[in-house]
Amino acid sequence: MKTLKFINILKSAFVATVVLTSACQPDEYELGQVLSKSELKYEVVQDSDDPNAVIIKALNPGTQPYWITPMGRSTKLQDTVRIPFAGDYTFVYGVITRGGVVQADPLVVTITTNNLNYVSDPLWTLLTGGVGNEKVWYLDLNADGESRYFAGPLYFYGTDDSWATVTEGQTVEGDVWNWQPDWKGNSWLMAAGDYGSMTFSLKGNAVITVDHKMLGRQESGTFFLDAAAKKLTITDASPLHDSNRDGHVVNWGDIKLMSLTENTMQLAVLRDKALSGEDPCLLVYNFISKDYYDNWVPDDMPDPEPVLPAGWKDDVTVKIIDNKGRTVPDAANLVSFDISGPARIIGVGNGDPTSLEPDQFVPQYKRIKPGNWKAHQAEGIDVDEAVRAEFDAVSWEAAFQTKGLEPGSQPELTVYKGSFTLIQEDIKGQVTWLFNSIATGQSVYLNGQLIAKSLSDSYNRLSLRFDPAMLKVGDNHLVILGYPLVKQNIWDEMNTDPGEILIYHAAPQWQRKTFNGLAQVIIQSDGEPGDIVLKAKGEKLKASELRIEAR
User: Fold this and answer.
1) CATH number of the domain located at residue range(s) 19-115 in this protein
2) Which of 277, 285, 427, 429 has the most C-beta neighbours closer than 10 Å?
3) How far apart, in Å, do the first and last CA atoms of the chain sit?
4) Which class in CATH covers the domain with range 366-505?
5) Do residues 342 and 526 lie in contact, with contact meaning Cβ atoms separated by under 8 Å?
6) Which candidate, 138, 167, 168, 165, places its Cα nearest to that of 153?
7) Is residue 380 left, alpha or beta, with left meaning phi > 0 and alpha meaning psi from -120 to 50?
8) Is 354 exposed, middle or buried (0-12, 13-18, 19+ CB in 10 A)?
């Protein structure tokens, strides 16, 4: 009997000095007539019990306030600006009307006391070095293509990920996932280079200065760290980032704090679909402190390497031999590979320049956008009949013609119906609806069968995995039963995208035909200790395995 034999292996490799507090919902207003500066009415007063708290009030009804404070901008009718340090601070009141912005003269408020309770949370110290200090941060990628702490400078997370999932390790519902690419294997993400520095200062005020060397600009602004909500707000500046995504974010100052230690920080901004052409996700930029960067020393010991048998060299070669140990040069057997332990297969080959066999076996993904969405109010129709797959909604109106009902509207229960098409190969995979909420109190049907009910609109995206028995080749019908979303403000745009269908096919079996009796398999350690077992088998061949100890 011919035998598989392994020859060798490839070793694989803020403290913001101003706190704006306000109601949970923005104030409602309408753009009124053009006002003159003399008609502007407002109040800026210090709290009698806490002179570091400055209360601002807009007194022009029917207009949108537009405040410029030492910390940033506010559009609230009333806000409280909390300033920890003594000093002279400028406030500017304005209103936005149909004729544009009208501003009053700047007003200077003198604060003579310090209230460091505003910046006492330990996160402020980690970010800035503490009151009277400043701290410099770098993006974790330098001109040599080196990331000194993280696997790379940029990770990708779901829109519902946060400090809770990243730092605390909590499990939450919604759009929760991550991809943490290593830069060396994904250098297309951004160019290696000196991205400059980002300095958070608490020397008299919460000031941030950013030297965007790769973008060719410098910025200076203010910041505020909401330690409880783990949210960082930056005004008139943006965190260090790459040019590839400079135009993909609506508001670079609206930031989720994902993690923060003495040496490392992860800041997340929302990728906008309209700007990027890709689905929304959190772009998580990874930073290290200047002190960590300056004092970093490569590990004395290399990453865990396999303890290899004598004679092993750079890659794993499979040789087909006969019962006397001789290579069979004309063998062209199909060999299958499996691996267990802290490693994975990343490629196969056989040296045949004419071979058309795949070198990699990876999962396959296919996305389908449901279409033909129609809508009809539930009143006046038989809802049970309407959710059936056979029901023809061609006479209904096209759905989602507006971005939500106008403020104050009373929503009526509505039936939304759409469809998507599958081929036989699609049904062999795992089919999931990446569902975006488009209503409240939602019930969802597939081909007339209820798959979820009482869905809240609290999450932007839910993953609804379909039972294969409910699917069919050809048209499949989706129904959403719920109350349309109502705008809180006239400028709001509510979601009208019910999501897309994701079809996942697991990676096929790793395999390769031998050429001249030989085949190759490349494996990569994940750096963890443990036993790696690589197995090979083939028809009419005696199976073989290789064990490697990684430590």
Assistant:
1) 2.60.40.10
2) 285
3) 36
4) mainly beta
5) yes
6) 138
7) left
8) exposed
Residue 42 phi/psi, 5-degree rounding, is -165, 170
Are 122-295 and 366-505 in the same CATH fold? no
Q: Name the residue type at position 209.
A: T
Instruction: For residue 283, give the nearest of 449, 159, 418, 191 by alpha carbon.
Output: 159
Strands 541-542 and 2-6: parallel
For residue 348, pLDDT over 90 is answered with no
Can you give the three-state secondary structure of 360-374, one letter per residue?
CCCCEEEEECCEEEE
**Are 266 and 152 contacting, i.e. CB atoms less than 8 angstroms apart?**
no
d(CA 307, CA 298): 22
Residues 6+ apart with CB under 8 A from 243: 190, 191, 214, 215
- CATH code: domain 122-295 is 2.40.128
| Calpha distance 313→306 (Å, rounded) | 12
74: nearest Cα among 138, 123, 33, 18: 18
The span from the CA of 164 to the CA of 170, in Å, is 5
Give residue limits of the domains in the chain: 19-115, 122-295, 307-352+521-550, 366-505
Q: Which two tokens stand for residue 527?
A: 């750096």
Model confidence pLDDT, tens digit, residues 119-132: 888 999 999 999 88
The CATH classification of domain 307-352+521-550, taken from the options 2.40.50.100, 2.60.40.10, 1.10.10.1020, 3.40.50.12780: 2.60.40.10
CB-based contact 445:387 (threshold 8 Å): yes
